[in-house]
């Protein structure tokens, strides 16, 4: 593909066909879908608008570079340095875990608990404290802090790169009710009690990492590797979270495939109650809601 060739194409339809062909020739899965993602981002429009926005100006070099990077196996989020999560547009870069749509379910379950506290009379008269373990780019913490200005969110991560990106994202939305902290799980968390502890920890079994798609393997291994059976971090969080939860507080976790049955066995201590397991868009058990009843 040369710049001279690109200058021939003057409509989004032509560009769409060129991108689709480039991805198909390189055996990229879902070439049409990837072409739609590329053009909707470069043209700042919806995927449907690609077919109506006939003539357009487009940076030929950027168009070519984006296609080349995708063919090399790079995720779109790393190519664009941007990712959508709920109503947020977040900065992202290589070395930081890319949020998945399934994690929006975890956020929604947390929102339900915050609203329940508010309806019960907690609301603005008493600031709710939320702890986000392994915040990554800050997608969970920022979603909650943005939706509920009266809560206080502490978000931690072991990756300084991730914390820097998360801080930039929080600044973009001018959030004053969120703080970021370097910590390996609970190690550096101040000795205080939280109303809710939330986490999307690494939960892929270590023996399955080699089978992950090429694009996923580019993401930080530390954000993917859940150890044996994928539950190493889940075990640690469940063990230590009660020390940081208020009575009646909630621990809300994202989990991997088939880990719901393991979780039921793990939560054997009498002070913890597994309230429910929520399935994702593909009907896979994905979010565990646990209550500290002490």
Short key terms for the protein model shown above:
294 residues, alpha/beta, Helicase, Ruva Protein, domain 3, Rossmann fold, 2 domains, 11 helices, globular, disordered N terminus
Task: Provide a descriptive summary of the structure in words.
The protein is of the alpha/beta class. It has two domains: 70 residues, Helicase, Ruva Protein, domain 3; 200 residues, Rossmann fold (3-Layer(aba) Sandwich). It is built from eleven helices and nine strands. It has a seven-stranded mixed β-sheet with strand order 5-4-3-6-7-9-8, with helices on both faces. It has a two-stranded antiparallel sheet with strand order 1-2. α8 links the parallel β4 and β5. The longest helix has 17 residues. The chain starts with a helix and ends with a strand.
């Amino acid at each position: 593909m040369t710049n001279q060739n690109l200058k021939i194409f003057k409509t989004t339809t032509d560009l769409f066909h060129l991108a689709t062909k480039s991805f198909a020739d390189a055996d990229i899965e879902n070439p049409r879908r990837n072409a739609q993602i590329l053009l909707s981002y470069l043209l700042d429009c919806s995927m449907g608008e690609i077919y109506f926005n006939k003539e357009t100006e487009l940076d030929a070099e950027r168009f070519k570079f984006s296609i080349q990077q995708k063919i090399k196996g790079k995720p779109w989020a790393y190519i664009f340095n941007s990712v959508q999560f709920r109503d947020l547009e977040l900065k992202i870069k290589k070395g930081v875990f890319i949020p998945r749509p399934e994690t929006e379910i975890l956020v929604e379950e947390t929102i339900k608990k915050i609203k329940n506290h508010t309806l019960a009379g907690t609301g603005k008269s008493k600031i709710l404290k939320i702890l986000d373990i392994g915040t990554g780019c800050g997608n969970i913490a920022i979603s909650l802090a943005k939706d509920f200005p009266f809560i206080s969110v502490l978000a931690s991560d072991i990756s300084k790169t991730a914390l820097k990106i998360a801080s930039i994202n929080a600044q973009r939305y001018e959030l004053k009710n969120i703080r970021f902290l370097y910590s390996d799980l609970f190690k550096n968390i101040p000795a205080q009690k939280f109303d809710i502890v939330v986490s999307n920890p690494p939960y892929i079994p270590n023996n399955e990492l080699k089978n992950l798609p090429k694009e996923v393997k580019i993401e930080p291994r530390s954000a993917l590797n859940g150890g044996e059976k994928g539950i190493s971090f889940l075990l640690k969080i469940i063990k230590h979270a009660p020390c940081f939860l208020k009575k009646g507080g909630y621990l809300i976790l994202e989990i991997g495939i088939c880990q719901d049955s393991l979780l039921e066995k793990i939560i054997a201590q009498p002070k913890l109650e597994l309230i429910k397991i929520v399935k994702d868009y593909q009907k896979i058990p994905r979010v565990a809601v646990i209550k500290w009843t002490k």
